[in-house]
Amino acid sequence: MFSHVTLGTNDFHKAEPFYDAVMAALGHPILFRGKGVLAYGTPTGEKLFVVTPFDRKAAAPGNGVHAAFKVGDRATVDAFYETALANGGTDEGPPGLRPHYHPNYYGAYVRDPDGNKLQAVCHRADG
């Protein structure tokens, strides 16, 4: 459904090591990096961009907005969470089942150093 998600940052030097580590834990390669932009994913697949805002105003996380990364197993959800916290992220909900979404919904929530909310989720029963 989506081509890419773009998140803003006010501190590129904090965002870069955070996203390099978290995206590696999720198995998403660095696509490219440049002045004020990080890109993860593949040229023809889904991508995440982390940028300093193009309008040069301060980046602000959206209230009620988050980006969720679908993963193939629960161990990757756990690794995402631990990696995020070890690299400047903050807890927004530890790994665990959320059966109010569906019986096999296993997810974790964090905030990046700029306050953007991120999630990793596995939908598999055998994950």
Question: pLDDT under 50 segments (min length 5)?
Answer: none
Q: What is the first-to-last residue Cα distance? A: 23 Å
User: Helices and strands: which structural class?
Assistant: alpha/beta
Task: Please describe the biggest sheet, giving its number of strands, its sense, and whether it closes into a barrel.
Answer: 4 strands, mixed
* CATH architecture descriptor name: Roll
Mean pLDDT: 96
User: Can you write the helix and strand succession as a string?
Assistant: EHEEEEHEEE
Number of strands: 8
CATH class: Alpha Beta
Q: Can you tell me the overall shape?
A: globular
Strand order of the largest sheet: 1-4-3-2
CATH topology: 2,3-Dihydroxybiphenyl 1,2-Dioxygenase, domain 1
Supply the number of helical segments. 2
